[in-house]
Design brief:
By secondary structure, this protein is of the alpha/beta class. The chain is 44% helix and 24% strand.
Length: 148
């Protein structure tokens, strides 16, 4: 199978209302392309579920939308290992024309927050401890006063 092109994009291109509407019809009145998109989406979710790590760590945090064979991924995942698993799964699913990935990795988010807070630590002589879990950032630390 040929490699899948991965492009980061904005999920605003896909309306969640439009994407969910065909599911209400339970397969009735869907165009052939909508049926193909629903089949791709179902295959993706089934394959994510089959992966023990993704099922335990990230399954409920990943939003998948498919429109005209283009897969839109959004949400939060734990780390690059999850991203690699997702990439491997998507590579083997037929019918995917393109992938637009806006998944946020917790380990990258933690590093970005820590880097930003590092400037404050040096300026005000304080210490922060950061972490992230599925997009929720936790912040602890010691500061000299409430204004900091």
């Amino acid at each position: 199978m040929s490699p899948v092109q991965v492009i980061e994009s904005d999920l605003d291109e896909v309306s969640r209302c439009e994407e969910r509407k065909p599911m209400i019809d339970h397969g009735k009145n869907l165009s052939p392309s909508e049926k193909a998109d629903e089949a791709i989406k179902e295959n993706i979710y089934q394959d994510f579920w089959k992966d023990n790590f993704l099922r335990a760590m990230d399954y409920d945090e990943i939003d998948v939308h498919v429109k005209n064979g283009i897969v839109y991924l959004g949400g939060h995942i734990v780390n690059t290992s999850s991203q690699s698993r997702i990439d491997d799964i998507l590579r083997d699913i037929p019918g995917i024309r393109e992938i637009r990935n806006t998944l946020v990795l917790d380990d990258e988010l933690t590093l970005e927050v820590a880097a930003s807070l590092g400037k404050l630590e040096h300026t005000f002589g304080c210490k922060f401890f950061t972490g992230a879990s599925h997009g929720v950032v936790s912040l602890n630390g010691v500061v000299s006063n409430k204004n900091v």
